[in-house]
Amino acid sequence: MGAAEVRILVLIPARNEEASLPAVVADVRRYAPDAEVLVVDDASDDGTPAVLQRLGVRWLRMPQPLGLGAAVRTGLRYAVSMGCETVVRLDGDGQHPADTIGRLLEPLEQGRADVVVGSRYAAEASTTPFLRRFIHQVLAGVLTLLTGQRVTDPTSGLWAFGPAVLPLMVNHHPSGYPEPELIMFLRRNGIRLVEVPVRMRNRLGGRTSLTPQRTSAAMVRLLLLLVVVPLRSAVRSAGGRADA
User: Fold this and answer.
1) What is the pTM of this model?
2) Which domain holds residue 55?
């Protein structure tokens, strides 16, 4: 498929997801057969590279572990270089059923949003363990106060980026565990952000890297961003590029 033909790219950041990636890719191909698939391997030290060679998808490998945010930014840069119009990001652990992709794209296609986030807490009860959900609720409350917009799922890995925001994300997508910072950065820059309710399932294999300790650290980092993020507000030029 030529770069000019690619309209939607499904970006899957992954680290040590050899057990789940085959099912994740098969799920995407079933529910989004016209989308291109790109896996960004964050220097996995298990059998992930060998699995990717068999799956027949585009994939990039980071030279060393740089974190989820860096992997996503790398994938977004690649998507823009391909002439992609929309990027759907979902995790490589199988928690995000690909049948939710259409729900994410709907607000973009209707012109109601520039970025869409899938929320496991926006509708029905979640099966997330109590401690993790409590931390998520506290973090969501802080984000709601800071942004003036209701946030229910501050660590969701299920996103859709529309064409208006992709040039901005190429240079400004946060590193590390990026979701809370990304939500605040987008709102500070006037980007239309919408949450849609989605169901999520347990990961298909491996272990989560987003532990309660790291989620708590993300909340502390978010408080520090009260000072940092306003200084990072980006201004888009007439050519569509963003400058810090």
Assistant:
1) 0.84
2) 3-232
Is 175 part of any domain?
yes
Residue 72 placed within a domain: yes
φ, ψ (nearest 5 deg) of residue 131: -60, -45
Mean pLDDT lowest for which of 40-44, 193-197, 202-206?
202-206
Angle at which helices 130-147 and 212-231 cross, to 10°: 10
Residue 59 within any structural domain of the chain:
yes
Q: What distances in angstroms separate CA 165 from CA 97, 119, 179, one per listed residue? A: 24, 20, 16
Please name which of 142, 138, 182, 139 lies closest in space to residue 158, comparing C-alpha atoms: 182
Decide: 242 and 171 in contact? Cβ < 8 Å. Answer: yes
pLDDT, residue 244, reads 42
Distance from the Cα of residue 52 to its chain's centroid: 20
**pLDDT level of residue 219 (50, 70, 90 thresholds):** low
Q: Give the count of domains, the chain.
A: 1
